[in-house]
Design a protein that fits this description.
With 334 residues, this protein is of the alpha/beta class. Strands 3, 4, 5, 6, 7, 14 and 15 form a seven-stranded mixed β-sheet that branches. Strands 10-9-8-11-12-13 form a six-stranded parallel β-sheet, sandwiched between helices. Strands 1-2 form a two-stranded antiparallel ribbon. The radius of gyration is 20 Å and the shape is globular.
Length: 334
């Protein structure tokens, strides 16, 4: 099989396509013929060396394909099933614990930039019916993150107002889930072209945060001064204050990203006096993914795909991803 390995020192230039023997499933494992993968900020951090990993690691956390062999004791999946990976293979349901916070494909164990992967059966779920492998591969990181932040922790309901920040994959999925739930969506971006694309996806109100620096106040004004119910916070230190300003009393901020850094000063009195609820989101569990996939199927949601690159061109895919010019998911066909 073909397999991509990240050699030290980590960089796009050190992604190498090699040949290897396909693995064989042991008890409790499945062998999956991977057909597609997708890129996420986490993968980019690994490839750039920001997140350290072992020399020769196979990158990518998101993969989709079909089961071609099952080890002894596997009952939930069968040969021929279309499946998609989970970000946390051992976080099956409920809240994360120290015991389930282990093994991240593409970081601490080999990921899905390869033709065959052998993993515990619980590291995969069934893909949404009717989805292509390329569509399914968009879900494990970005889709589940948006779902857990908005639905599991936010408990979004019809009539709520959701503020999505920028046009990254998590924000796009959050927009789609919010609209499916009957919520109103306020979307922000600094690019008019991307605001037009967000409008076509169903955003009810648009804010250019470059021309409107106090966009939190603007979002609140759009709700007649009440404030938004949910913020999908992907910016980090540079945006958190505006997210707080946008919220209603008792509003919810799902903290997902750190595009502007890792340390922030927080107005603590504003946090408690406005009774804001802040949730730190680190993807989600296998059960979250299964719930999300049922909702995707019922609501006939379609992921937004930007471009797909062959496995042999994975370095080109990362170079494209790093330009930040994409809208939707950047995929890898295998």
């Amino acid at each position: 099989m073909r397999v991509v390995r990240l050699k030290s020192p980590a960089s796009v230039a050190n992604l190498h396509v090699l040949e290897a023997d396909p693995p064989k499933p042991q008890a409790g494992e499945v062998l999956v013929r991977l057909r597609a993968a997708s890129l996420n900020p986490h993968d980019d951090f690994v490839v750039r060396g920001i997140i350290p990993t072992t020399d020769g690691r196979v990158p990518l956390t998101d993969g989709a394909g079909e089961v071609v062999a099952c080890g002894e004791g596997v009952t939930d999946l069968r040969v021929g099933d279309a499946v998609v990976s989970t970000f946390w293979p051992y976080w099956l349901s409920g809240d994360m614990t120290a015991a389930t916070r282990r093994e991240i494909p593409g970081e601490t164990v080999d990921g899905y930039a390869r033709e065959y992967a052998c993993m515990p059966a619980h590291a995969f779920t069934a893909a949404p019916p009717g989805y292509s492998h390329a569509q399914a591969a968009t879900l494990p990181c970005a889709g589940v993150t948006a779902w857990r932040g908005l639905v599991v922790k936010g408990q979004v309901k019809p009539g709520d107002t959701v503020l999505v920040m920028g046009s990254g994959a998590v924000s796009i999925f959050a927009l789609q889930f919010a609209k499916a739930a009957g919520a109103r969506v306020i979307a922000t971006s600094s690019a008019e072209e991307k605001l037009e694309q967000l409008d076509r996806l169903g955003a009810d109100d648009l804010i250019n945060y470059r021309s409107t620096p106090n966009w939190g106040e603007r979002a609140k004004a759009l709700t007649d001064g009440r404030g938004v119910d949910h913020v999908i916070e992907v910016g980090g230190p540079a945006t958190f204050g505006q997210s707080m300003a946008a919220c209603r009393l008792g509003g919810h901020i799902a903290v997902i990203g750190l595009l502007s850094g890792i340390m922030a000063e927080v107005n603590i009195p504003a946090l408690f006096s406005n009774q804001l609820r802040v949730s730190g989101i680190s993807i989600g569990s296998r059960a979250d993914q299964e719930d999300m996939i049922r909702a995707i199927h019922v609501n006939r949601l379609q992921p937004v795909l930007d471009r797909s690159f062959p496995l042999d061109e994975i370095a080109t895919a990362f170079a494209h991803y790093q330009t930040q010019s994409h809208f939707g998911k950047v995929g890898i066909s295998i």
